[in-house]
Specification:
The protein has about 650 residues and is α+β, with helices and mostly antiparallel strands. It contains 21 helices and 28 strands.
């Protein structure tokens, strides 16, 4: 099947270019065929990427004759999934006809039917060029929102690392690294803050995901602060832009790094930060209008306070803060300007010694000054956990020690080769269907749509309920979710979420086990037959994933002991969950009802017969509900061989099953 890019490249080569001014629409590319005929091509989907105008149904009898074009005639596809066009009948929005294109020749035949003419500009040389381009570039464009769904054990979480790297560093995947290398690169992006990971569960809330009020204790006092959730944090990272840059800084190993609060942005001190950035200095709120130029120790600073009628102890924070600002901070040290406890908004290099601003100026405090070269200024502010392992404290000024500061991230932020903006970011939401979507996303569910993202033609923003900030979802943030269909089927998923995500099915792939045998038993055949029985008795959403058996593919791991452990610890407990302790059906899945008792994984009954327990008169009325695991069968190759097929005699189990 041709990908969206392959179809677009082919249509362009035929001379049907995308309509001017619509080269990058939100959902579909528009190709004009002439005579009022259009074809619409989705930006990136795996199924039905081509959409025809509803009037094409008039040529259905001709189109169905094209073997390599598969059209979804009935029911038609709502065009809202593709774009707000095609329109006809007095500009009323109607339905499109979605289609899959299996070959270049099929696409050419379709165009000929729709236009009534031969395809222009399609000589052999040009067609060869198109095929060459298609063969070199599959044209895969990662969707902004996607969900990998399927039964447990099909590698959904495993593949999120691959999908994330398709977004962040596709060239890395082209080198065909093994999964260990992929995982290491993935974890490196996590440390850099480019990937966020979160697992949804029943108690997960809007306050955890977006923002909320959290209680915290500092110095024995309970304080209530506004805390950004994981989604808002990575959105701020993705949308943060370097508003000004005064050069780069290489090699900061010997530099001390300090956190400094430049005024309270929520109060009357909101002017302080802007003043510092504009004038190239840092200001300290402590010390009033006292000149500490000749104070070289905490004791001298305390004396200066006292001389000005401010009685301070030598260990008070007023003394400590001024001493740190004047005497501890050196030229070349770095200043991290905080924005509350959860964010930072600028990084500067101290370039001058302490001095006092003109005390005669009409201002309220903030006269203690150090010249500062502001290397990076961000708007909006960036999350503190990008740079530190813990949030900032309430103290105005203190050193960020090595165990708190992510120095490698700091180096990256200040180096010359990382100043480019609009890097891509990824948030991975594991088990997305286990959370209450309406409760977690709230009003932000609409903002996830590609067409509603920041910078899009129909961009939207909302005022967040706690911070009252104007918020939008950036178009360089990719959302990758996983969904276990055994927990909740796709049909039950929130409709609002389904409309905004592309769904990629991941089913068990038994072919990955084709070379794996244990004591002559094919793991591929074993998985296939188990899943067929589960589909008959339950449904395909509750089949067994191939990843349960993949450890057996490792060198020397294909032993009966390991296979028995997988059945005892994973397969049988999962079947118990699937069938709600209906042991008879579990026996049917395992084929135990047709095995010699020795090879049955599940035995019915207990150690004592019913007659002995209840007496003959009662035992005939009792339905024995006792079931037990036959541990001995786990170590017998015939137990697995007889799971695959029905045996006429016990002796036939001696044959190898491959």
């Amino acid at each position: 099947m041709l990908s969206p890019k392959e179809i677009r490249d082919a249509l362009n080569s035929f001379g049907f270019l995308m309509e001017p001014g619509k080269k990058k629409p939100s959902y579909a590319y528009e190709h004009y065929l002439g005579n009022g005929q259009y074809l619409y091509v989705k930006r990136s989907v795996r199924k039905a990427p081509l959409v025809m105008h509803p009037s094409c149904i008039e040529k259905r009898s001709s189109i169905v004759m094209v073997e390599d074009i598969e059209v979804q005639w009935d029911p038609p596809v709502k065009n809202s999934s593709y774009r707000t066009y095609p329109r006809y009948n007095n500009s009323e929005t109607e339905y499109g006809l979605a289609a899959e294109v299996l070959s270049l020749d099929g696409l050419k035949q379709l165009v000929q039917i729709l236009t009534g003419d031969a395809v222009p500009a399609s000589d052999q040389e040009r067609e060869d060029d198109v095929v060459a381009v298609i063969s070199e570039d599959t044209g895969y464009t990662p969707p902004l929102n996607q969900i990998l769904y399927g039964p447990p054990g099909t590698g959904k979480t495993y593949h999120t690392a691959i999908e994330a790297l398709k977004v962040l560093e596709p060239a890395f995947l082209e080198t065909s690294p093994d999964y260990k290398a992929i995982r290491e690169r993935y974890e490196q992006f996590q440390k850099e803050g480019r990937i966020a990971f979160v697992t949804f569960h029943q108690s997960f809330s809007y306050e955890d995901f977006v923002e909320g009020i959290k209680a915290e204790t500092e110095d024995g006092k309970v304080q209530y602060t506004l805390e950004d959730g994981v989604f808002k944090r990575i959105c701020n990272l993705a949308s943060a832009k370097v508003m000004s840059s005064e050069g780069d800084l290489e090699g900061d190993k010997d530099r001390r790094v300090w956190k400094l609060s430049l005024g309270n942005t929520l109060g009357e001190e909101d002017f302080v930060y802007e003043e510092c950035i504009k004038n190239g200095y840092s200001l300290l709120g402590w010390g009033g209008n006292i000149d500490f130029n000749y104070c070289e120790s905490p004791a001298e600073i305390r004396d200066a306070y006292i001389k000005h009628g401010d009685d301070q102890t030598e260990g008070s924070y007023a003394v400590t803060a001024v001493n740190t600002f004047k005497n501890s901070i050196r030229q070349g040290d770095l200043i991290i300007a905080s924005d509350g406890n959860q964010k930072f908004r600028a990084i500067g290099e101290v370039t001058g010694d302490y001095f006092l601003l003109d005390p005669t100026e009409p201002r309220s405090g903030y006269l203690q000054c150090r010249k500062t070269r502001w290397l990076r200024v961000y708007e909006p502010s960036r999350p503190v956990d990008e740079l530190c392992n813990k949030q900032f404290s309430q103290r105005s000024l203190y050193e960020l020690k090595s165990h708190v500061l992510k120095r490698n991230v700091l180096v990256q932020l200040l180096s010359a080769n990382t100043k480019e903006e609009n890097k891509d970011y990824v948030i991975v939401i594991d088990e997305i269907n286990r959370g209450n979507i309406s409760r977690i996303f709230g009003e932000l569910i609409t903002l996830l749509e590609p067409g509603k993202r920041a910078g899009a033609s129909e961009a939207l923003s909302v005022i967040l309920p706690y911070s009252k900030e104007d918020f939008s979802v950036p178009n360089n943030l990719y959302v990758i979710g996983t969904m276990n269909t055994a927990d909740r089927s796709l049909a039950q998923l929130d409709i609002a979420l389904r409309r905004r995500f592309e769904f990629i099915e991941m089913m068990p792939d038994a072919s990955l086990l084709k070379d794996v045998t244990v004591a002559g038993v094919s793991m591929e055949r074993l998985l296939l037959i188990l899943n067929e029985r589960i589909e008959v008795l339950l449904d395909r959403d509750h089949t067994l994933g191939h990843s349960y058996f993949l450890p057996l593919a490792e060198e020397g791991a294909n032993t009966l002991e390991n296979l028995g452990r997988i059945f005892q610890k994973q397969i049988i407990p999962l079947l118990q969950e699937y069938f709600f302790e209906d042991w008879q059906r579990i026996q049917w899945v395992l084929n135990d009802h047709l095995k010699p008792k020795k090879y049955q994984f599940i035995h019915k009954g207990g150690k004592t017969d019913l007659d002995s327990l209840f007496g003959h008169e009662v035992s005939g009325l009792v339905n024995d509900r006792r079931w037990s695991l036959n541990s001995d069968a786990l170590g017998e190759s015939k137990s697995y061989a007889t799971t695959i097929r029905v045996l006429e005699t016990e002796d036939s189990a001696e044959e190898s099953v491959v």
